[in-house]
Structures are given as C-alpha cells and as structure tokens.
C-alpha cells in the first residue's frame, strides 16, 4: 500500500532531478522514505533521490516498487500550483496511481517495474576533493564552458585553494576560477577530471540556483554532485563518469 | 456607411473570439450593433459575437456587410496598445477599411462577403443543464483533459449537484469535479456529452480567465458556451457539436 | 597593445549595433577610441561605430586592428551581467583576446583582419531633411510597415512639417505620420526614398527604444540614421542604400 500527501512543488522538484536523466524510472515506496535510483541509457550519468517521510504532509508505505513514466507524472502533478497539496494513492488492484488535488482526480497507469532499466549501484568513492558552492556558481561555470566546448574540466588547485571549471575549445578557452571567498567550503586535494557537458547541463537544469551544492571530485574519476531538496528532508545525488583526457 | 471609434482592447478581445475558429468572416454592421457569426470548415464549432453600439466610443452604421481577413485586421488593431482608441471607417468606393490610431493610418482591403463561408444558424436548444463558472476553472479542466485524451466529456451529476470535466485516455484518466461551492451557479439536469478537445481548446484560448462563463449542456447534444465582452456591452456564444460516445 | 576595462552593457550595446549587419568585423583600436566600420555582404547597409576612450573605465591602445567573430565575442561578454566590468586584453603573441570578468577568464581566437570584408567608406552626403525622433517611434513605424510590405518609404512633407513612414502592400497600406509635436526636431526639405525593410528591421533591433535617433533623408538617396551610445561617449551611424521607386 502507498498513500501520501505532499506539496506540489516539493514533489515536482524531486521528480525534476530524475527526469533530466531518464524518461521512466522505478520508485521505491519504502516505509520511511520514497526513493529513486536511475541511470541514463549510456550508463554515464546516475541519480539517487531520496525523499524522507517527513517531507510529506502524510506518508504511508510498506516497501512496494512502482514504475512510472516521469513526463506523465510531472504533467499530472504540474496541474497543481506551488504549495497546493497533492494526494497520491496506489490502487494495488488496477496497478494505477490515483493523483488527487483540489477538485481534480487523475489516474495514471503504471509501468511494469521489470520492464525498466535496472537501478544502478552508486558506489562509495573516496574522492580527494570536496567543493561546496552555490548552484548559481556551478550554473555560471557550465554556461561558460558550453560556449567553447562540449566537455568541461573540473579541477581543484590545491596550492591556490581554488576550484576551476574549465573548457578548451578548438580555438577558444574559458576558465572559471572560484577561490575560498567564492566558495562555501573547500577540502582541497588532487582532483582533475573531464566530463561531458551534455550530462552536466542536464543535471544543472534540475539544481536550484540557490541550492548549496557539494561536488566531490577525484583524479580522472567520476564526480558526485549532491544537494538537499524538500528543505533538507530529501537529497539528490548525481554521479557522472569521467571522459578520458587526451594529452 | 460605417464609422466607429473603439478601444483597441475591446475590439481585439471581440475579434479573438472569432479568429480562434476561422480565418475570414463576414462582419454585419447593423445600426445598433456589430455582429459576426461564423462556423469552422468542418461545421463542428460555431461562434456568434455581438458588440453593442454602446461598446464603442462612437458608432454609426446602416446595415452593411463586409468580409475581412481576421489575422490582418488583428495585426492592424494590434498596433494600438490597451485602451488606445482605434477609428474604423469603411470606404464604400474602394471597399477598403480605413483604420486610424494615434499617428498611424492603415488601409485594409476587404474580401467579397460572397466568397466567405455562409453564416451558420445557431439554433435555440432546450438544454437540460446550465453551469456558470469562472473561465479559469474551465481552463483548468480543459488542460487536465488534454493530458490524457483528445476528447473531453462534460457531465452534470444531478444527484451530487456537481459539474464534471472528464477525459479517458488509453491508459490514464482525469476527472475534474466542480461542486456547488466551486461554481457560480448550477441548474442541474440530465446532461452528459462528449466533445473534441481541439475545438474546446481553441475556444478556451479566447475566453478570459476572469470571465463568468455559462455552459448549457444536454444529453449527447451540442454545448453552448457564452460569456460577456466589452464590460457587458457585447456577448460571445460558442456552440460545439458533440461526438458520439462509444460504449 | 590593447587593454581596456568597460561595463558589460556598454560594450554589448555597441557590439549589437554591428552584429545586426555582419557576422565578422575589424575593430580598430585607436589611441583615443575603439571603432568599427562594416558593410553587409550585399553592400546595402553600413554601420560606423565609435566608442571614445572615455566610455571605458580604462583604455590603452596604440592603433592596432583585430578581426573578431561578433557572435562569439558577444557570447563571452554576455556572461557578465549589466554593469559588471569586463576586461579586454590583446595577447600580441598568440593573437588572442583575453576577456576577464569576476572569476571568469576567456580566451577568444581572433580572425585575420585581411580575411574580413573591407571596411566601407561612409560618404558625406548633403541630405535635405533631418528628422530627430525617439527610437520607439521609429520602431512603431517599421513594425506597421512590416505588416503590409517588404519595403518602406520614408518621406518628409515639407508643407505639413511632418515625417511619414509609409508602406504600400499588394492590397493594404499603412502611413505613420509624425508631426512637429511627435518629433524631437525636424529640418524639413525635399526628401522621399524607398528602403528594404529587412535591413531597417535589423538596424532597428539595435536602436534602443529610448534613444534620440537622427534620420538624415534625401530624394532617392541613402538614409543615414545615427544615435549616441555609452551615455554620449560613443556614436552609431547606419547608412542604407535606397531602392529605386517604381511608378
């Protein structure tokens, strides 16, 4: 069984973080939280979303798994505005999700979870550097890199205690440097990796500009990017595989 | 002869109600009102617009009929902003419409009225139910229905004193229920009909969100939707033929 | 050598005036001003931009010439917002332009100036009429003309002391008349010429609505349109060749 009431914006922000990577996903309706893990078809970008029971006005679940088309679910939830409450209820018999809000009742057919790409394991990585910055700063660096290239280099300069978002195009370059004053926090370490901008741009779409974003970075290693949602009662973690740097 | 002065927004709102259905129309320049009746090429949706002489700053006409290209006329009127006054004058000799506003004089070639599809007769129908609601509510129901289907069912539940805007898609359903508290007025009666969403969406584009909209509904019968324009000195009536409900 | 600091909006507005006509241009880095002259590929529209050293926070140059891709340069400058300062520095060795702003360093490859279309000579013309008007008025006239035709007639009526922006389409006409009250100033003279709307629309995109725009007009002669930028410390002049009026 699953029955929950949640503000439309909380649910929408959470779903957005997943729908930038995949069209369909499994949603785990655990007793104490709703969670989604998904990986894009090319196995390059992963997302791990958890939304605590406390993020909901009310939440009852017993560990089921449902499969959903995210665009459809977001359309339905999008009929509610801002803080309007949305009620979700699983009809076990018909395998449909009932979505109710002020006057409007919708029924969304679910997808067989077995038909959805398997959930990825998001590994624990021991990454040397950790950067904490505003979503708006990450956004600026990604936009700058996107002007000259289709990949971006994230790098920590341990000596200068600075984080660099860099891109080298065929003719033009950009280097966005954030030092201790620009960052919320920095644990400097040897860290320098190259990533596809397409994925990072997709992830960036979902990251609120005002969010406090933590970037964990290594040397030619995947990057982990995480931030809180639902006023701290939920969490989004992205992991993105590196591209090999040519010399 | 025809010569009139009217605020740009009044004229634009009135023309919008027609241009969502047809590209060209006849305009009847009656002594006491300007009126347009038109039907779409498939004979499914009709509109009847009347704009009283009182809706104009000044109005002189003697019963002529002109044919216009609505997009062009709206472009010309659109050069004026908001409450700016627009002067319309028919040049009988050249069969052109002179359109004047602050500094700008335009001449719009008219279309031979005989070349325009005949004006429909909009029948008096004795429809069992009458629903009065805000344009914004109708808009919400239509948007919800559009997520799952290309047709929509309008239905009055006489027992519950409620109006339903419903749609059944191949896999998903929506039901937008408006009860006595949500409606401005309801005359309940047996009423349940299915309509093409394409037409209803077009009509909805022209209906102001703040308008008080009256919906007259029957059992597998056309629906009539009407609302006031020009602060009550004009009226728009849409009529839309039903689709046959399959069982 | 070239090194300058300037507010992003000042630089962007100046570059916009050129990029509406051409994709690439030469920039002359004179000791006392930065200047650009360019002509479109069809030799119909020309622009002459000058930006005094005083328009910059700081400015050092010794007469060099660089070639730039305007879209790229505008992208880079566009990363700064509003009054944020942008630093430009020419790297003589690599022939690249370094662009720096709060945290962000970009390097833009320059184009060989010899590969760019030659700068036009913008002739002194003795034009009979001079009209000074708000950018917003010019914009309105151009928008109106664009509804009915692809060329526009600019005309001064010396008797009525009025400036006309007119267009005759196949079926419809517009005439936007600005008299002494609507204009900032008018030196009436025999002036009546026809121009391509495509070019005038492009130029109009760059002209601020609030700018005081001077139009110099003759009889089947090119028109000159100029306005100040950088709070009077710069100037843009457009020249547009006439189309021959058919009778």
Automatic annotation (TrEMBL), chains A, B, C:
SUPFAM superfamilies, A to Z: DNA clamp (SSF55979)
User: Taxonomically, which superkingdom?
Assistant: Archaea
Q: Which GO terms describe its biological process?
A: leading strand elongation; regulation of DNA replication
Instruction: Name the Pfam families on file.
Output: PCNA_C (PF02747), PCNA_N (PF00705)
Q: Name one GO molecular function term.
A: DNA polymerase processivity factor activity
- Keyword DNA-binding attached: yes
Q: What InterPro entries has UniProt attached to this entry?
A: DNA_clamp_sf (IPR046938), Pr_cel_nuc_antig (IPR000730), Pr_cel_nuc_antig_C (IPR022649), Pr_cel_nuc_antig_N (IPR022648)
Q: Which residues form the Proliferating cell nuclear antigen PCNA N-terminal domain?
A: 5-99
Q: Which UniProt keywords apply?
A: DNA replication, DNA-binding
Gene3D superfamilies tied to this protein: 3.70.10.10
Q: Which residues form the Proliferating cell nuclear antigen PCNA C-terminal domain?
A: 122-242
As recorded in UniProt, coiled-coil segments are none
Instruction: Write down the PANTHER family for this protein, in alphabetical order.
Output: PROLIFERATING CELL NUCLEAR ANTIGEN
Q: What quaternary structure, including any partners, is listed in this protein's UniProt entry?
A: Homotrimer. The subunits circularize to form a toroid; DNA passes through its center. Replication factor C (RFC) is required to load the toroid on the DNA.
Q: Which family does it belong to?
A: Belongs to the PCNA family.
Function, please?
Sliding clamp subunit. Responsible for tethering the catalytic subunit of DNA polymerase to DNA during high-speed replication. Sliding clamp subunit that acts as a moving platform for DNA processing. Responsible for tethering the catalytic subunit of DNA polymerase and other proteins to DNA during high-speed replication.
The entry's protein name is DNA polymerase sliding clamp
